[in-house]
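BACKBONE STRUCTURE TOKENS:
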Amino acid sequence: MPLGSKEIEIDSLIVKIASRCNLDCDYCYIYHGQDRSWESMPFRMPDAVVKGLIDAVTFLCAQQEGAPLVAFHGGEPLLFGLAAFDSLVTRIEEQAPRARMTVQSNGTIYNSTLEAILKKHRSSLSFSLSVDGFQEENDRHRVDRRGASRFRKIRDTIGRARDAQVLDAILMVVDLNNSPDRILEFMHWAGAPQYDLLLPDGDRQSLPPMMDSLDACQAAKWVLDFSALYCKERRPFGVRMLDEIIERLLLEKQGLPRPSSSKVRVDLTVDTNGEIKLVDTLRINRRGADFAGGLKISRAGIDAALCSGELRDFLRTRDDVAPECANCRHFDKCGGGYMQHRWDGESYRNPSVYCSDYKKVFGVFERALT
């Protein structure tokens, strides 16, 4: 559907096939954010919603130029049940062969049955884990509901998935107390081909953990200490945050334009009750921030969502950055930062809480590449 002169396409569908989790990570934007809507959600996505989801994915794969990524989330998505999960992936493969799928797990559920499922669907389904390092680093935030460590099981999952060649990526949330060299050591040990380092969530009302002020640049120091280690050695894996910065700076240095698209890309969330929402990370800001009109997932529902006033308002808000961002020489590299990090209690038209950190990191990388 058009927005101005551009067509809107769904880049990712973040699908909540299970609404509960067997861990209690203290930084989780679902269970420790401002929005408590998960409490009223079905534990698992009902069959009728699953059917609507498959119909919607089939519709999108037929209509869009680029196939959407279907990202199975929760909670812990594998609490959906392994047999039911296998059936869901199989049905999407059969009805929408172009669809790309991934499952983001906390690593506490892994056995021979899951391994067989991952191998069976290897061409269309990737497997990613969320873990923050070795036990000391991981257990700072990622423990179960009784406060107990689950790292022994997670360690076993990493080893088995790596050996079976089904481990595609590991997502890690940065804690400034974790030593960068230990994190790099963990990456070598875990053996994933790709790592995603994420800075902790927060906004201008409630700063991220361990951030004393907007100008302290504490996150920048950690990232730069890590990048100094990462960039000086050969390694068989990538770290997306750093690789993207380097790629953009090299394009800029060569005078090449950043790749552009004729499409407006958007991520949408599907809750276990079938309601279509905006990107789920907005839940850290306030209750209902991800509301998208109350539509339910289906061919008609997803088509209506693409035409909805809520989605258009969201896209305008997302792209309406602060004047200091629009005029910043680093804007092409950060885009103003993640939208949820721009909220001040009234508006998203603000610099990211990590603005000073971004500028410091970009400046150091620029000097290193000259």
Observations:
- The first helix runs from residue 47 to 63.
- The first strand starts at residue 2 and ends at 3.
